[in-house]
Description:
Layout (H helix, E strand, L loop, with lengths): L1 E6 L3 E5 L15 E2 L5 E2 L1 E5 L28 H15 L3 E5 L9 H11 L5 E5 L8 H7 L3 E5 L5 H8 L4 H13 L5 E7 L1 H4 L2 H11 L2 E6 L17 H9 L4 E5 L8 E5 L5 E5 L12 E4 L4 E3 L7 E3 H6 L4 H13 L19 H4 L2
Helix pairs in contact: 1-2, 1-10, 2-3
Amino acid sequence: MTSSSIVGLGIPSISRISPIAVDDRPDVPVLIDKFGRVARDLRVSITEKCSLRCTYCMPEEGLPAIPTSDLLTPQEIARVVGVAVHSLGVEEVRFTGGEPLMRADLADILRLCSTVAPGIPLAMTTNAVGLEHRANALVAAGLSRVNVSLDTIDREHFAELTRRDRLPSVLAGVRAATRAGLSPVKINAVLMPETLHGAADLLEWCLSEGVALRFIEQMPLDADQEWARTNMLDAQRLLDVLSARFDLREIGRADPSAPAEEWAVDGTSATVGIIASVTRSFCSDCDRTRVTAEGTVRSCLFSDEETDLRAALRGGANDAELADLWRGAMWNKWAGHEIDAADFVPPARSMGAIGG
């Protein structure tokens, strides 16, 4: 079962096809693919809605609404997480969107997932708008850490990038996350020509707040599909800018599957990371598997092939059948995104519709 007949700004319709061919797959329970990679990091999108309209992620009018009946319920999300952890070897779960805080039942989702998978870290990628009002309740429900999307601390520039004047709420949300005991709190900043001049200021702010900063090269996942390889900024350009203010010492990757390369800042314990998804691809070590808000498995950010778990969930499949379906989807994962290939075609879904 994969996606077909892509419609409406990256929201696909799902249709049934013949079962996935996995005759040559080894008989192992984990989510291994043909290249020997094993997925242990699960990303679960829970909504397409967002309180911001970042230019590199969503169109100004937002994404087409997904009918509530098509979204996985908290109970279904918890069942998916349980299968992933107990049958497939998943070791970490991260909730994404859209914006996860747009789900009023987020605490219920966390509580159910922490019950079915005790001891498994439950993380969230968020823009932190409104987090100051919910951080304590989310921690009580099982949330263990957050990544906050924040590209600039200049209020006017923030409003231009996000099409919303919400920087004070974001900064309050970051501080609330720290007070609530979430650790680590990481800041994700997309590296673009329009954010480069403020990169050192952002790092200075993160150092003062005691939160970790990671810059991410912009990928061709924008809803307007205006990304161009020739226009993007690479990691080296950023390092040159940061090095003008800070002493940076390269550390590298402690974990080969970790996306960020790390640099120590001014000889302290603080670090800054760079996720060079385009220019220093880490596809060969990728350990992620994704479930969209509609309950489809997506093996790679850049592949439009999706396998429908929701239909199986609601059609009476048992956990073993769900696990087998998921294994088949991941067995056929691509070798890599091939962004630099001459025939590269961006995925139909934008980042906001996929989940980070």
